[in-house]
From TrEMBL:
InterPro entries: F-box-like_dom_sf, F-box_dom, Leu-rich_rpt_Cys-con_subtyp, LRR_dom_sf, TPR-like_helical_dom_sf, TPR_rpt
PANTHER family given in the database record: PARTNER OF PAIRED, ISOFORM B-RELATED (PTHR13318)
Record carries keyword Phosphoprotein: no
Keywords: TPR repeat
Source species, domain of life: Eukaryota
Domain spans labelled F-box: 131-178
Positions of TPR repeats: 7-40
Entry protein name: F-box domain-containing protein
One GO CC term, this protein: SCF ubiquitin ligase complex
GO biological-process terms attached to the record: SCF-dependent proteasomal ubiquitin-dependent protein catabolic process
Length: 564
C-alpha cells in the first residue's frame, strides 16, 4: 500500500518528478493526492493543468480546469486557468464569458477575485464595442476640448472619419479663428474648402494667400463681417488679387491688420486706401517697405483715421527727400489719435522726428535700426520707449533724450545697441522742477537691456557700469527687469546685490546668459517677495541648489543651458 503524504508534500514530490523528466510518476502522484485529499482538489488539479499546458497538451489542461470549476465553483483558480488557456487559443469571447461566470460565482472575499476582475476588464476593453466620443459626449464639451488644439490640428481631426468630420463641422466656434499661414502635407487638398460652407462668421484670420485657392479666399472673406483680427502673408504675385478681394468686402469690426511681405513695397496711397476702407482699424502692422510716391496726389487732409491707435512699419523708402517732411506733416493729420508708433529709418538715413511733437496722445514709441548720429525726439506724453539697433552715445543726446523731456516714462527698452553710462543717466535723471539744485529720477516700472554694450565714455572712469547704474537708486519701483547677455556689460553678483537692496517690487526678472552665481539668486529670493518669474537660461555659474531654492519660492523658474 502506498505511503500517505501531506498535500504540500504531494505537490513538492510531483514537481520534483516533473523536473527530472519522470512526468508519468508526477501525474500518478497528483491522481493519488486527489483520491486521498478530495477536499483540496483545486490545488492538485491546478498543478496538473499547468503541467499539461507546459507539455503542449492544452486539451487535457482545459479539461482539468473545467473539473476545478465543477468541483469547486466558488474558487477563482479554475476560471482563471480556463480563461487564460482559451485566450492562448485566441478564443477571447469564450474566455470573457468564463470570467463573467466566475465573477458571479466567486465570492468577493476570495483571494483570486481581484485578479479575476482585472482579467475581465482588460479583455472587455480589448474585444468590447468601440465607443466613439463624438457619439456620447455633448457638443459643448467637445468644443471646450478641441479649442485647446491649433487650427491645423483640428483639420487633422476632420480626417479621422466621416463621423468626426460631420460632428466637428457642426461646432462653429472651432472654426471662427482660422490660421493657415503655411502648407502642410498632412492636410489633404480640399479639406478647408469642404469645411468653409459649414463655417459661420469668422472672428480671427491668419492666412497665407498661396495656401488656398482664390475661391476659398473669397469664401473666407465673405464670412468676415465679424472679423476683428486679420494677418496676411503673401508673395508678390498674390497681392494684387487679394487686395482686390479685400476691396469687395466691408470690414465694419476689423480692429487689427497685419500685412507680412518683407520683400515688397507698398505705396503710401495703398496704406491710405486701406485706412479709408477700414475705418474701424485700431492697429496696422506693415511688415514691408512703404514707398512714398510723389507722382500720385496726396489724399485730402480732411480725411483722418481717428480710430487708429497703433501703427508699426518695417522700412520707409522715399525717392525725393524734400517730399518726406510734407508727407510726415500729412501723416500726423491722418493718424491724430495714434498711441503706439514704431519708426524705422528712411533710405538708410535718420527719420525727421520733429513731427512727433504734434502727436499729443502718443504713449508708446519704438525706434528701430536708426543709424549713428540720429537724435530721436520723445514727446512728453510717452510712457513706453524702445530703442533698437541704435548707438546711444553721450554727445548729441543732451537736447533730445533727457528725463525732464519725458517725465511720464515708465518703461525703457534698449536692444542691440551701444549705450554709454552717461547717456543713460541723462535719460533716467533730471533736475527737480521745484529745486534746481536737487536731482530726481524717472520712476520706471519696466527696464530692459537686451544684447546691449554698456560702457563709459570717459577713459578716466573705471569699474562695473551696471553696478554704478544700480547705485543711482532709480529702480525702486521697477517690476519687470530684463538684462539679457549681461556678460558684455557687467551683470554679476555685486550688481544684483545692489539692485535687490532697493528694488523690492520686482515681479519678473530675466538674467539670461549673465555671470551671476547662487549668491545673486539667493538675494533675489530673499529680498524680492513679489517675484513670480525668474529666467536663468545659460547662467552657467548658478549651482543646482540655488535653482532648487528659487523653484520653492518663485512660481516659474527657467534654467535651460544651451550646449554649444
Amino acid at each position: 500500500m502506498p505511503l500517505k503524504f501531506s498535500p504540500p508534500e504531494y505537490i513538492q514530490r510531483a514537481k520534483a518528478e516533473y523536473k527530472k523528466g519522470r512526468k508519468e510518476e508526477a501525474f500518478e502522484l497528483l491522481q493519488e493526492a486527489l483520491r486521498v485529499y478530495p477536499d483540496q482538489c483545486v490545488d492538485f488539479l491546478d498543478i496538473s493543468s499547468a503541467m499539461h499546458s507546459a507539455d503542449g497538451d492544452n486539451d487535457l489542461a482545459l479539461q482539468e480546469a473545467h473539473q476545478m470549476m465543477k468541483r469547486c465553483p466558488g474558487e477563482g483558480k479554475g476560471y482563471l486557468r480556463a480563461g487564460k488557456l482559451l485566450q492562448g487559443r485566441f478564443k477571447d469571447k469564450k474566455a470573457l464569458s468564463l470570467y463573467k461566470l466566475g465573477l458571479k460565482s466567486v465570492p468577493r472575499r476570495n483571494s483570486h477575485y481581484k485578479e479575476l476582475c482585472q482579467m475581465h476588464d482588460r479583455l472587455s476593453m480589448k474585444i468590447g464595442p468601440k465607443v466613439d466620443p463624438l457619439r456620447n459626449v455633448p457638443l459643448e464639451v467637445l468644443e471646450m476640448i478641441f479649442l485647446n488644439l491649433s487650427y491645423k490640428e483640428r483639420l487633422f481631426c476632420l480626417q479621422v472619419s466621416k463621423t468626426w468630420r460631420d460632428g466637428l463641422s457642426q461646432a462653429q466656434t472651432l472654426w471662427r479663428d482660422i490660421e493657415l499661414l503655411s502648407k502642410s502635407k498632412r492636410i489633404k487638398p480640399g479639406t478647408v474648402e469642404r469645411l468653409l460652407p459649414r463655417t459661420g462668421l469668422i472672428n480671427s484670420l491668419r492666412i497665407g494667400t498661396n495656401f488656398l485657392s482664390r475661391s476659398a479666399r473669397s469664401c473666407i472673406l465673405s464670412r468676415s463681417h465679424q472679423l476683428r483680427s486679420l494677418e496676411v502673408s503673401a508673395s508678390f504675385s498674390d497681392w494684387q488679387t487679394f487686395m482686390s478681394d479685400m476691396r469687395s468686402v466691408r470690414f465694419p469690426n476689423l480692429q487689427r491688420l497685419t500685412l507680412n511681405s518683407p520683400n515688397m513695397n507698398f505705396s503710401d496711397h495703398a496704406v491710405y486706401s486701406l485706412l479709408q476702407h477700414i475705418p474701424s482699424l485700431k492697429w496696422l502692422d506693415l511688415n514691408a517697405t512703404m514707398e512714398l510716391d510723389r507722382s500720385i496726389p496726396l489724399p485730402s487732409p480732411t480725411f483722418s483715421s481717428r480710430e487708429l491707435e497703433a501703427f508699426t512699419i518695417r522700412h520707409i523708402y522715399c525717392p525725393a527727400n524734400d517730399y518726406l517732411e510734407t508727407w510726415l506733416n500729412l501723416f500726423c493729420l491722418v493718424i491724430p489719435n495714434v498711441k503706439l508708433l514704431r519708426l524705422p529709418s528712411v533710405n538708410g538715413d535718420s527719420l525727421p522726428t520733429r513731427f512727433l511733437c504734434d502727436l499729443c496722445p502718443l504713449q508708446r514709441l519704438e525706434y528701430c535700426e536708426l543709424p549713428p548720429g540720429t537724435y530721436p525726439i520723445v514727446p512728453p506724453t510717452v510712457t513706453f520707449l524702445s530703442i533698437t539697433d541704435l548707438v546711444v552715445s553721450e554727445d548729441g543726446y543732451e537736447s533730445c533724450l533727457q528725463g525732464d523731456m519725458m517725465p511720464n516714462l515708465q518703461c525703457l527698452r534698449v536692444s542691440h545697441a551701444d549705450v554709454s553710462l552717461e547717456a543713460l543717466r541723462r535719460i533716467l535723471h533730471f533736475q527737480s522742477p521745484d529745486d534746481a539744485s536737487q536731482e530726481t529720477h524717472i520712476k520706471l516700472t519696466e527696464f530692459v537691456l537686451r544684447e546691449v554694450t554698456l560702457c563709459f565714455t570717459s577713459p578716466t572712469n573705471d569699474g562695473n557700469p551696471v553696478l554704478q547704474m544700480f547705485q543711482w537708486k532709480t529702480f525702486e519701483s521697477v517690476e519687470i527687469l530684463i538684462l539679457q547677455n549681461g556678460d558684455f556689460f557687467g551683470v554679476d553678483d555685486e550688481a544684483i546685490l545692489e539692485l535687490t537692496s532697493q528694488a523690492s517690487n520686482l515681479q519678473r526678472v530675466d538674467l539670461t546668459n549673465t555671470a551671476i552665481t547662487g549668491v545673486a539668486v539667493r538675494a533675489l529670493v530673499k529680498n524680492c517677495p513679489k517675484l513670480e518669474y525668474l529666467c536663468l537660461n545659460d547662467c552657467r555659474y548658478v549651482p543646482p541648489d540655488a535653482i532648487n531654492l528659487a523653484r520653492k519660492h518663485v512660481r516659474e523658474v527657467s534654467s535651460k543651458i544651451n550646449q554649444w
